[in-house]
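Bench log. Compound arrived from synthesis this morning; before running ITC I wanted a structural hypothesis for how 2-phosphoglycolic acid sits in the protein. Inputs:
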Amino acid sequence: MPRQFFVGGNFKLNPTSRAQKQALVKVLNDADLDLNTEIVISPPSIYLIPLKEIVRKEIKVAAQNCYYKDNGAFTGEISAGQLADAGIPYVILGHSERRTLFHETSEEVAQKTKAAVAAGLSVILCVGETLQERESGATTKVVSEQLDAVVKAIKEEDWAKVVIAYEPVWAIGTGKVATSAQAQETHLAIREYLTKAVSPKVAEDTRIIYGGSVNAGNCKELSLQPDVDGFLVGGASLKPEFVDIINAKKVKAKV
Ligand code: PGA
């Protein structure tokens, strides 16, 4: 079975009002979207439930984080089980902003991934290297180490619930997109890693999406790479051009 193309919108700590959230949803609800692509949008947690209620049913909703404990004295956290109970199907885990600004380790990301799949959620698992790591030739090593922790924590069948987002840190929010050759090279390295560390089937079936300054202008070329199965989009997911990114794979009708 070919891997279904996947486009996620990571709104991060945006938008800043309920009215703006409604305007973003209206653009998507009114758009002509390629429904062969799986579409997931990820607003701040306070907007998850109201957004899910107004967005068209073909678009799924993702949390931007969750905790690995089910309940208890963990002020400020949301559990995977609570997300599942609220009907939220996806969660983004291990985003570089969480790893860097909030000091999440790969082990914590792995525990969260384990808790999320156990609760029945699907996970957008983010990995990626810094510029210094890329320039020192350590990209594959860094990404493999980030994935190693998850490989140890979950079972082979759990990978059916995981989409890997390769997001080079130097490309996130910088306007500096990886070339399609750089993206393809690392995506292939991740697939080779999965073949050895998990199984050839998981390597073949797991979607590996690219994130980092994706926009309407560069998405088409990136989407043509054989191991690029979609995108995780930050800044451009808040703009009307997000529709063009969702439609990157759309075959234009012949006139
Ligand atoms: P960007 O963010 O598209 O603004 O670079 C991507 C991400 O952080 O997921």
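What the model suggests: The domain at 6-246 is CATH 3.20.20.70 (TIM Barrel). Residues 10, 167, 172-173, 211-214, 232-236 surround 2-phosphoglycolic acid (CB under 6 Å).
ITC booked for Thursday regardless.
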